[in-house]
Specification:
This protein is an all-alpha fold and about 130 residues long. The chain has one domain. The protein has 4 helices and no strands. It is elongated, with a radius of gyration of 16 Å. The two termini are about 20 Å apart.
């Protein structure tokens, strides 16, 4: 049975109404655990630089967070909140053994978050 776009939109909205907060909290916890893990536990991909890893992680997080918050918050609000959260997580690395906080890491995280949010907004607007 094939569903039209309107019905899929209603089903997505019902899912995000039910699980949106849980997805947002889970995403925030995963970012926190990855950011505040001691240096001896950090595993890098080896494929990309640390800056690219920051951008990809926050772009995916931004896309997900906007998708579950669409219609409730504007894209710029989600981007600002996620960028601020990235700043808090980066600052918190000062207190984690084997980790260091870097302004450049924050900038790449914020850029990834912003790109992910606005890419998600564009895709959702196009599909609407």
């Amino acid at each position: 049975m094939r569903q039209n776009g309107w019905e899929l939109g209603r089903r997505w909205r019902a899912l995000t109404d039910r699980f949106g907060n849980l997805l947002t909290i889970a995403n925030a916890l995963v970012l926190m655990l990855a950011s505040w893990a001691p240096g001896s536990y950090v595993v890098r991909s080896g494929i990309f630089s640390g800056h690219v890893e920051h951008m990809v992680a926050y772009a995916l997080s931004g896309a997900l967070m906007y998708a579950v918050r669409v219609g409730r918050w504007a894209a710029w609000q989600v981007a600002v909140m996620l960028s601020a959260y990235a700043g808090v997580l980066e600052w918190g690395q000062i207190f984690v053994p084997g980790r260091h906080a870097g302004f450049d890491d924050f900038l790449f995280s914020a850029a990834g978050a912003t790109a992910g949010v606005f890419a998600s907004a564009a895709l959702l607007k196009r599909g609407a």
